[in-house]
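DM from R.C. (forwarded with permission)

"hey, sorry to bug you on a friday — could you get me a structure for this? deadline for the figure draft is monday and I only need the backbone to look sensible"
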Amino acid sequence: MYSKEHTKHLAQLKDLAPEQLQAFNEFNAAVFQDGALNQKEKEIIAVAITHVTQCPYCIDSHTKKAKKAGATLEELAEAVFVTAAVEAGGAVTHSTHVHNANEKEASDSLYNRSNLKSLGQLGNFASAGFKGYQAFSAAATKPGKLSTKFKEIIAVAVATATQCPYCIDVHTKNASRHGVTSEELAEAIMVSSALRAGGSYAHMSNMINSYQE
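My reply, with the result:
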């Protein structure tokens, strides 16, 4: 299903949807220009986001672009572990709705910070697993080849890609505490946006292949 040969079909988009293709290409090019974040940083973020979208074409393309921009394999591995930790956190924080669904006095708002008070229930019922998650999350964001500051930028980008409001809230605040600017976060989020679009774009190669089989 995921053959590099399929990507040749993307060339047909210039005839199938030329206006949309041009707009996508211009959007993508603008996102990856140097700004508050440089190209290397943006490509590292892109590799992290490709593991949210699980697009093998995007993983291949942006890993090679990140390498060309000077990123090391160690940096990329650390970035993807941030993705894994944020996705684990999304599952953990959303578990609050399981508890709140059975609580008559729980907030009617599905996404309310007060919901997080029920996380203690998860720790009580699955203490070993919960402690393991906490240790993993701490390890994923500790400084290494990448700084904690940059890992929190990645985390915010991943949180927007996973659409977890709790994760967005937590990691935006963490990023602020580490001195991340609004401009840096905005550019990281635009990388997330471009990669979400890019996954759909790249998978059109499979659509065209299936249609023409």
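R.C.: lifesaver. The CA atoms of residues 32 and 38 lie 8 Å apart.
me: no worries. The two ends are 13 Å apart (CA to CA).
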